[in-house]
């Protein structure tokens, strides 16, 4: 059994296609297939079911692959130690960010981060939580920036800050006459929501104690963008709930449409997440420090009294 064989094994599991895996490993497909066959012969087990398209690991193969990921990661940590000592913080950082954070949080820190660490190439992908977690497990991302807790034993969570939920109300909405709102005061039929798949949608429905949203107007519009929801509220009617960072830069006339929740405010926990056998430790620690340095101080100092969970 060799390290190269284990890397080929992981590549096939990641891409579920022998030709693609060979291309990513910079070898021919016959070479990769031959090495995997040797590994399976040595172990005396079939790791992949080749009769299925795309190829899938067998039940025992799943356990072999999980252990192979740990073994390869531990070996790479040795290389990483030497590289950091020789070159400092350098290399590629692949970051996944959920859409309800990306446009509001990333601009706060990214310019200073890339200026401070010019040897780091940052690749940012905006995607929903389930996609980030899947890519972390397949080592297609190094770190995720999302809302926790995830309740996934393979994922390590590094909490950063707690962001409040706020209401965004049309000027004619009855709640706009109140300084603060409560979960009980919200009529779910007035709510504009994000599409299914967004964790923020799940949290909003949970906060309002509803399994789903039912509107009683002629327009039914679910969006993948908080900015679209804002515009719908402004031009139509009703209200939506937003994360606090998304209203920080609003012009004064639109800030008048924002209503905070009464205490204890509902919060969401924002974290960096990595696979438990993660690499690039120094790089990710530096990213964490840079984010914390640029987040408004009151978000960092909040006590998590009422954290809305993700279902």
TrEMBL record:
Which protein family is named in the record? Belongs to the LysR transcriptional regulatory family.
Supply the alphabetized keyword list.
DNA-binding, Transcription, Transcription regulation
Q: Which domain of life is it from?
A: Bacteria
What CDD domains does this protein map onto?
A: PBP2_OxyR (cd08411)
What positions does the domain HTH lysR-type occupy? 1-58
A Pfam family of the record is: LysR_substrate
Would you name any one GO CC term? cytosol
The protein's organism comes out as Rufibacter quisquiliarum
Gene Ontology molecular function: DNA binding; DNA-binding transcription factor activity
Name the UniProt record assigns to this protein: LysR family hydrogen peroxide-inducible transcriptional activator
Q: Does the keyword tRNA-binding apply?
A: no
């Amino acid at each position: 059994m060799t390290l190269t064989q284990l890397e080929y094994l992981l590549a096939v599991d990641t891409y579920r296609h022998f030709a693609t895996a060979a291309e990513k490993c910079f070898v021919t497909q016959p070479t990769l297939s031959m090495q995997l066959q040797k590994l399976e012969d040595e172990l005396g087990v079939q790791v992949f079911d080749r009769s299925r398209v795309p190829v899938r690991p067998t039940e025992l193969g799943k356990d072999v692959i999980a252990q192979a990921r740990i073994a390869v990661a531990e070996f790479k940590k040795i290389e990483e130690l030497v590289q950091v000592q020789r070159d400092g913080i350098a290399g590629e950082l692949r970051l996944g960010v959920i859409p309800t954070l990306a446009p509001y949080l990333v601009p706060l820190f990214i310019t200073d981060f890339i200026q401070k660490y010019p040897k780091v190439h940052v690749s940012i992908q905006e995607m929903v939580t389930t996609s980030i977690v899947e890519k972390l497990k397949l080592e297609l991302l190094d770190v995720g920036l999302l809302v926790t807790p995830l309740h996934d034993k393979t994922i390590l969570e590094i909490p950063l800050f707690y962001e409040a939920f706020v209401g965004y109300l049309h000027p004619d909405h009855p709640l706009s006459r109140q300084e603060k709102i409560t979960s009980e005061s919200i009529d779910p039929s007035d709510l504009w929501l994000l599409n299914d798949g967004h964790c923020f949608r799940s949290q909003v429905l949970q906060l309002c104690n509803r399994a789903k949203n039912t509107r009683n107007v002629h327009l039914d519009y679910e969006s993948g963008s908080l900015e679209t929801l804002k515009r719908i509220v402004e031009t139509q009617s009703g209200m939506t709930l937003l994360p606090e960072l998304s209203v920080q830069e609003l012009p004064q006339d639109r800030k008048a449409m924002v209503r905070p929740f009464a205490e204890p405010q509902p919060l969401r926990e924002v974290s960096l997440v990595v696979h438990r056998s993660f690499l690039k430790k120094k790089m990710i620690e530096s990213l964490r420090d840079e984010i914390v340095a640029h987040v408004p101080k009151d978000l960092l100092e909040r006590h998590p009294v009422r954290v809305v969970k993700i279902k």
